[in-house]
Each structure stands twice: as C-alpha cells, then as structure tokens.
Task: inverse folding
C-alpha cells in the first residue's frame, strides 16, 4: 500500500523547488528592484545587461543578500498552528565589467542565483505527505556582450550556464518514514537587454531571461529502509524554469533624483507537470505572474545617496496544486537603502521587509494541505565595488 501511494505523494510537489530570487544588488534592492532602466553598475548583467555600456574601464562588484529567516506560519481548519524551521540564507553575487573607453562594446561576467529555495517543516506537520523539506541551489554563470551603436542606445546578449542541485523530502503514510530525492544538473539558456535614453531625463530599459529545462540526475530513497520498500534508486527528475521579461521607465527631473517604475513577468505556465522516472507524474498548472516595482533615489552630496522602494509580487500557485514547500501568496515588499559612489570605490547597503496576509486554501488536491498560510521575511544586503 505504501509503495502504491508514492506516485501520488511526491511528483506533484517537485515543482515546489522552483522559486525566483529577484534581489541581486543592494543598490537596486534599496529602490525596490526598479532598476531595468537605470542599470548603471555591474549588476546590470542581471537587471538589464545593456546597462553595462554605461560603465568605463574595469569594474568589479561583490555582494550578498541575507534572508534573515523565512518565517512561514500554517493554521489548519481545526485551528492547529505549525511554523517552519528557520535559518539565515545567504545569496552571494559577483559581477565584473570591462568597458574600453571610446569603444562601442563592453564585456561582462556575472555569477548569481536567479532561483533558490530553502523550506523545512517539522516532521509532525499535518501535511507531511505533501512535503517536509525542499532545498534548491541554482547558480548562474552569465557572460554578456553589450553593443552601443549610438550614444543613447545599447543592446546586449549572453549565454547562461546554470548549475543546480535539488533536494526534496516528503513524509510517507507510515509514521516516521520519509522519501528523499537528491539530484544535480547543468542547464543552459541566455539573457538579453535593451537600454534607450531618448532624453537626458528619461530612460527606458527592457530585459529578457530565457526559460531553462533541468533534468536532475540523482537518487530516490526511503528512510528507514524496510523489506517492503524499494532500495535506493538511480533516477531523474524534470523541472522547468520560466522565461522572464522585465521593462522599466526612469525619470530624472534633476541630476539628484531618479524615479523608476518596472513591470516584471514570469512565465510560470511552463510548470504544467512534473515527472520523476519510476515514480510517476501529476499535473501542476502554475500560473504566470507579475512583479510591480517602484523606487526613488536621491543624491545627498559627496557621492552619497539614499533610496526607498516597493514591489508587489503576485501568487503563482493555484489552489488545487498548492504546496507548503512554497507557501505562496501575494507579497508586499518594502525597502530602504544607503550608498556612496566614489571615484574608485563604491558601496551600498539595503534592508527589506517581505510579507503578506494569510492565504486560505480550501480545495487542495491533498486535503491535508488545506488551511491558511502566511509568509514573513526580513532581509539585508550589501555590495562593494571597485573601478580601475
């Protein structure tokens, strides 16, 4: 009976390992990630690679985002409350740009994580058969080349080499039994961007990040082992990651002010099913969703600036296929930032609060998932840059 239940208890939750990480630079984070039309530091490789054409010389930037504990709360229809196990999650970034003075071309190399996840619930959670733990590492190596045919117009494109590792653990109907899948894969794609400044007060940016297909090679196993369970099995799991399109408009009424709005779309509809070889498959039916960003930066003299921003993130998971491993809900994200741009050195720090109200689930495919979910996460980030 336990083995017969496996195809319906695991594959439909595998997609829970797909989760975007839009925060890739402290300066951009401080202004609500409204940066596609500004993109004036090496992190443009992620936000809009065409922006690297605005730089000169050798530009190196390192930094990291820190999620200070992803706090997920669950309340069952009967009133039972469960909270996830929290930990601090670092998300490092590295960007380098070489833009020869007087040339139309610039080269860049970015290393960052556009997707990622770490969520773990206690073993006695009522929905344990739908997921107890999910961890995803998704590291992208992204060389780009930008071309500036006119002073106010730039284009860029580059391949993405993505190394990804995934782990997922689900509880089984027999008390104390767990099912685990661990796998890894290299996957490939590309990104591109356009930056146009029709007026010295206005800038428009557009970026594209291609979809990526990952087939994880790994092992499925049960713990504790038992005679009625299969031994560890070499298998594969397939996950799709969405294409992303983002666009923005920046308005600079004076040299000291920069106001920007962005719209960012993720094509999560590619996540329509999941399959683990030898263990079955089920439909998933995620929905495409939008981020809406707004931010402002004010220069305050001697190279210093302050920023504030906000963005709204739409939920992507439908109620029928909801998973506690991604306690998905509409999220409101507020941020503030401080930084300095010097002749050689630059730095930025930013803080974020990420949260939303309870999302009520009444019609999940797995009835044990029904209940209310809420997510809250504080985050800090920093970056340090040097230009030669």
Result:
């Amino acid at each position: 009976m336990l083995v017969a239940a496996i195809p319906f208890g695991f594959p439909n939750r595998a997609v829970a390992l797909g989760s975007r990480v839009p925060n890739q630079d402290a300066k951009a984070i401080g202004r609500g990630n409204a940066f596609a039309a500004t993109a004036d530091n090496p992190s443009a490789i992620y936000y809009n690679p065409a922006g690297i054409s605005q730089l000169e010389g050798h530009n190196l930037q390192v930094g990291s985002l820190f999620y200070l504990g992803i706090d997920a709360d669950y309340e069952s229809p009967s009133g039972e409350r469960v909270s996830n196990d929290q930990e601090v999650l670092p998300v490092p970034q590295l960007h380098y740009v070489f833009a020869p003075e007087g040339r139309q071309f610039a080269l860049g190399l970015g290393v960052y994580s556009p997707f990622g996840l770490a969520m773990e619930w206690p073993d006695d959670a009522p929905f344990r058969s739908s997921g107890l733990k999910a961890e995803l590492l998704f590291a992208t190596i992204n060389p780009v080349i930008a071309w500036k045919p006119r002073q106010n117009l730039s284009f860029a494109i580059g391949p993405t080499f993505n190394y990804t590792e995934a782990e997922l653990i689900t509880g089984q109907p027999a008390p104390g039994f767990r099912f685990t899948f661990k796998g890894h894969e290299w996957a490939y794609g590309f990104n591109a961007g356009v930056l146009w400044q029709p007026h010295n007060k206005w800038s428009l940016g557009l970026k594209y990040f291609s979809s990526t297909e990952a087939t994880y090679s790994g092992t499925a196993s049960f713990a504790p082992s038992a005679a009625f369970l299969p031994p560890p099995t070499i298998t594969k799991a397939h996950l799709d990651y969405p294409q992303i399109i983002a666009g923005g408009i920046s308005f600079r009424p004076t040299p000291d002010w920069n106001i920007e709005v962005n719209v960012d779309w993720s094509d999560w509809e590619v996540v329509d099913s999941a399959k683990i070889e030898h263990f079955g498959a089920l439909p998933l039916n995620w929905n495409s969703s939008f981020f809406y960003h707004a931010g402002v930066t004010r220069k305050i003299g001697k190279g210093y600036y302050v920023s504030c921003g906000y963005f709204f993130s739409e939920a992507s998971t439908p109620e029928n296929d909801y998973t506690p491993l991604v306690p998905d809900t509409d999220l409101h994200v507020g941020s503030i930032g401080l930084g300095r741009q010097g002749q050689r050195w630059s730095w930025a720090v930013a803080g974020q609060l990420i949260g939303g109200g309870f999302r009520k689930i009444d019609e999940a495919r797995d009835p044990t998932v029904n209940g209310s979910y809420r997510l809250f996460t504080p985050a800090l980030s920093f970056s340090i840059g040097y230009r030669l």
Notes: The radius of gyration is 22 Å. Confidence is low (pLDDT under 50) at residues 1-18. Residues 2-9 form the longest helix (8 residues). Helices lie at 2-9, 26-30, 44-47.
